[in-house]
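ok here's Peptide methionine sulfoxide reductase MsrB, seq below lol
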Amino acid sequence: MKEKWEKLTPNELTEIEYDVALNNSTEPPFQNKYWDEHREGIYVDILSGEPLFASTNKYNSGCGWPSFTKPIEKVVVKEKLDLSHNMHRTEVRTKNSNIHLGHVFTDGPIEEGGLRYCINSASLRFIPLEEMEDKGYQDYIKYVK
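and the structure came out like this:
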């Protein structure tokens, strides 16, 4: 199957999207696009359109950013030690486009594996369930239902 996902170039990103995805910045908590998104669907890489997270794995962690218990498939993300800001954290990046997503912490729901993927909305695009087939994501509907 040839993917027909919408791809963007860095020039098409807003200032905050560019700064977060390409310059490893962080958007403000509780003031971002998807922290309070509750619809069914998937969250994709803002540049490549590659599926990253499903709404079924999203939960309200109270941190002000979208939080997920796991990615759709572990192979779509990579983890990297982040010692910036005098902290010891694990950064999460997309494996293929190498954009900054956020960080993964070990304070997530124990019954779901204990991880909290704390992700910047600015690195994501949300594809609602009702648009997934038309936008070429029909193979990912199983992760939402």
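fwiw The longest strand covers residues 77-82. kinda neat tbh
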